[in-house]
Each structure stands twice: as structure tokens, then as C-alpha cells.
């Protein structure tokens, strides 16, 4: 039995079946108490005002008031951590909800919430994650929308440009929104490539890459095994896989640099693994390697950051003032493997200035 006061949860879903299943799952944890259930956003707002929950699980498709309207009003009136529960079919909606201030999401195979063991574990873990959030973080959804006329028309990167920098980014909870802000600041003339290990379900990484692709000046794709790494392009590691950067011929960044995508091995503690990606970037890019550790739970990236520093590269961690969860960047700072701790906007500018 935990000695902590249980987190008070509100379950919001228009399906009585889903509300019952989610409430039963959360109620099965000694650390969570379900204090209310609501069938639409309007009812949920009334219960939030009355019950003042610590965390909310939210369906996005609801009658009367949908999840997006609920999020906008909630974050303006009474900011509360929100975990979105959405089907695989609603990938774009999930990222829109994260931009509106939701903390994280749980993906379900279809409209109904099937309480299998994997989903049970995931939803409890993500609700309990709320204990590690800064109180103000959910209240400040980041301004990631591009200004009018800023969204670019996707074009193929110009081939033949020298690859001068290789930037590796590792992130988890809060990472999608943080990455959107960073990519808003990267110019078209960026003389490097970016490789990303974002902890995310496999059916969402392609949609997320497409969303990033509509920001900033570089092309963004979900990485495929064998992709050539070229300037002005970014690669998102597919979910449930790990990614390395390798040189197949030539020397360092002047050679033929390729992406290697494959299943995790026994030494990979996280999937995708920032540690594994960072280590490979250190080997390929040396002093031209840049490691960036953003918001997230755990310590993924610390071992890889140490390898980048040993190779003469640079490591930047998101500062506590902007990180939704300071676990990953905080672990890197405590380990002494970080050159600089910067707020999120400054990280975007730091990468942009590599141009």
C-alpha cells in the first residue's frame, strides 16, 4: 500500500462502456482514486469545477462539447493534467490535443476501450506520471502554431549540399509539442541532418513526422532502413524500433551516411533508444555531433550523451523551467554530460544558429 495520497481522477468519455472500463482500471491502483465520470465536455467542465481532480482521462470525440473545446476552456479556467485516450484512427487529433495542452496519450485499437494487460499498464503509468509534472506545465500549452504564411510547401531537399552537422534529439513525455516548437525555428538553410528518438507508439510516428514536416524549413520523414542521411532533412525513428546512423563508405560526414532501423536488442532499455542513437551519432559525426535531450521520464540519453561528449561533440539539455517532465534532461545534467541547459525556445535557436 502506498503512503502517498491517491491521485484523484476524472474519466471523460461519451461511451458508458469505456467510462466503466477506464474507471475500473484506474481504480485497481492503490495510487489512484476515480472521483467522477462524465459523458461529454460540458458535463466534464462542471465536474472539474466541483471535484477539482488531479488528472483527467479524455476522449476527443464526444457530443455537445468535444474534447478540443473542453481542452481550450479547461486550460483557460482551471489547468489540469489531461491524458488523452484515443483510437489509432485519430492520430492527427491526438497531436492537436497535445498542442492544446494535453500531457500525453494512450492509444486504443478501436473506438471501444478493450482492457487488455498492455493498455491497463500503460494508462496507469501515464496517469501516475502526473506526480512528476510541474504544477504550471499543463496550464501553459506551448505556442507551436506557425504564423500565417509560415507553413511551407514540402519540397525535396537539395542534394549535394555538405552535411556539416548531425543533430540527435531524444524525448518522451511532452516531446511532440516541444519538437514542434523547435522545428518552427529551423531555417531552410540548415546545413545538417536531424535524427529523432521520440518515445511513441508505432502507429503514430509517421503521422507525427508528417506534422513536423509542415513546420520549419527542413523535410521530415519517418525513417526507413537504408535511408541516406542528407542536409536539410530530419528522420523520426519508427515506434517499437531503434535507429542507428552508420557510414557505409567514405569518412565521417563526408562519406555515405545511412539510417539503420531495426528491432530493439537486449541492451536497449528504452524503445526507441536515444542512448543507442546518440552513440551512433558520436561515432559518425565526432566533433560535429550535437545531442539534444528534451522533456521525458527516465534517463534515456545519458549514456549516449556521454559518448557524444567523449567524441568532442556538444550536448544540450532542456532546462527545468520549460520541460514538462524534467526526468531525462535532469538525469543528464546530474551525470555531468551536458554542455548547456537551455529553455526550449533557446534550443530551437541554438540548432538554427548551426546554419
From TrEMBL:
Reaction(s) this enzyme catalyzes, per UniProt: [protein]-L-glutamate 5-O-methyl ester + H2O = L-glutamyl-[protein] + methanol + H(+); L-glutaminyl-[protein] + H2O = L-glutamyl-[protein] + NH4(+)
Pfam families: CheB_methylest, Response_reg
Keywords: Chemotaxis, Cytoplasm, Hydrolase, Phosphoprotein
Sites bearing 4-aspartylphosphate, chain numbering: 59
The EC number(s) this enzyme carries: 3.1.1.61, 3.5.1.44
PROSITE patterns assigned to the protein according to its UniProt record, in alphabetical order: CHEB, RESPONSE_REGULATORY
Active site per UniProt: 172, 199, 300
Catalytic class of the enzyme: hydrolase
Residue span(s) of domain Response regulatory: 8-123
CDD domains, A to Z: CheB_Rec, REC_CheB-like
One BP term from GO: chemotaxis
SUPFAM superfamilies: CheY-like (SSF52172), Methylesterase CheB, C-terminal domain (SSF52738)
Residue span(s) of domain CheB-type methylesterase: 160-348
GO MF annotation terms: phosphorelay response regulator activity; protein-glutamate methylesterase activity; protein-glutamine glutaminase activity
Keyword Cytoplasm: yes
Entry GO terms, CC: cytoplasm
NCBIfam families documented for this protein: PRK00742.1
Family note: Belongs to the CheB family.
Comment field on protein domains: Contains a C-terminal catalytic domain, and an N-terminal region which modulates catalytic activity.
Its job: Involved in chemotaxis. Part of a chemotaxis signal transduction system that modulates chemotaxis in response to various stimuli. Catalyzes the demethylation of specific methylglutamate residues introduced into the chemoreceptors (methyl-accepting chemotaxis proteins or MCP) by CheR. Also mediates the irreversible deamidation of specific glutamine residues to glutamic acid.
The name this protein goes by in its record: Protein-glutamate methylesterase/protein-glutamine glutaminase
Amino acid at each position: 500500500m502506498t503512503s502517498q495520497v491517491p491521485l484523484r481522477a476524472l474519466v471523460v468519455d461519451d461511451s458508458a462502456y469505456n467510462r466503466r472500463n477506464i474507471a475500473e482500471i484506474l481504480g485497481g491502483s492503490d495510487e489512484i482514486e476515480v472521483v467522477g465520470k462524465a459523458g461529454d465536455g460540458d458535463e466534464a467542465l462542471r465536474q472539474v469545477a466541483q471535484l477539482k481532480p488531479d488528472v483527467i482521462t479524455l476522449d476527443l470525440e464526444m457530443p455537445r462539447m468535444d474534447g478540443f473545446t473542453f481542452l481550450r476552456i479547461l486550460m483557460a479556467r482551471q489547468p489540469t493534467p489531461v491524458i488523452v485516450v484515443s483510437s489509432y484512427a485519430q492520430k492527427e487529433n491526438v497531436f492537436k490535443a497535445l498542442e492544446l495542452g494535453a500531457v500525453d496519450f494512450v492509444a486504443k485499437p478501436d473506438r471501444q476501450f478493450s482492457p487488455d494487460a498492455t493498455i491497463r499498464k500503460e494508462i496507469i503509468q501515464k496517469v501516475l506520471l502526473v506526480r512528476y509534472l510541474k504544477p504550471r506545465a499543463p496550464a501553459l500549452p506551448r505556442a507551436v502554431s506557425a504564423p500565417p504564411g509560415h507553413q511551407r510547401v514540402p519540397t525535396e531537399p537539395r542534394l549535394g549540399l555538405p552535411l556539416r552537422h548531425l543533430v540527435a534529439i531524444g524525448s518522451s513525455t511532452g516531446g511532440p509539442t516541444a519538437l514542434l516548437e523547435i522545428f518552427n525555428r529551423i531555417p531552410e538553410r540548415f546545413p545538417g541532418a536531424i535524427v529523432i528518438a521520440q518515445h511513441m507508439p508505432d502507429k503514430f510516428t509517421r503521422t507525427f513526422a508528417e506534422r513536423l514536416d509542415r513546420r520549419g524549413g527542413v523535410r521530415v520523414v519517418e525513417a526507413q532502413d537504408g535511408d541516406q542521411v542528407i542536409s536539410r532533412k530530419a528522420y523520426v525513428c519508427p515506434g517499437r524500433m531503434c535507429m542507428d546512423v552508420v557510414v557505409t563508405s567514405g569518412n565521417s560526414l563526408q562519406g555515405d551516411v545511412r539510417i539503420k532501423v531495426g528491432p530493439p536488442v537486449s541492451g536497449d532499455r528504452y524503445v526507441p533508444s536515444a542512448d543507442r542513437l546518440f552513440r551512433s551519432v558520436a561515432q559518425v559525426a565526432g566533433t560535429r555531433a550535437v545531442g539534444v535531450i528534451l522533456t521525458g521520464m527516465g534517463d534515456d540519453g545519458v549514456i549516449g550523451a556521454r559518448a557524444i561528449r567523449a567524441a568532442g561533440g556538444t550536448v544540450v539539455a532542456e532546462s527545468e523551467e520549460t520541460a514538462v517532465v524534467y526526468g531525462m534532461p535532469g538525469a543528464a545534467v546530474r551525470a555531468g554530460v551536458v554542455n548547456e541547459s537551455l529553455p526550449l525556445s533557446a534550443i530551437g535557436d541554438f540548432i538554427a544558429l548551426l546554419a
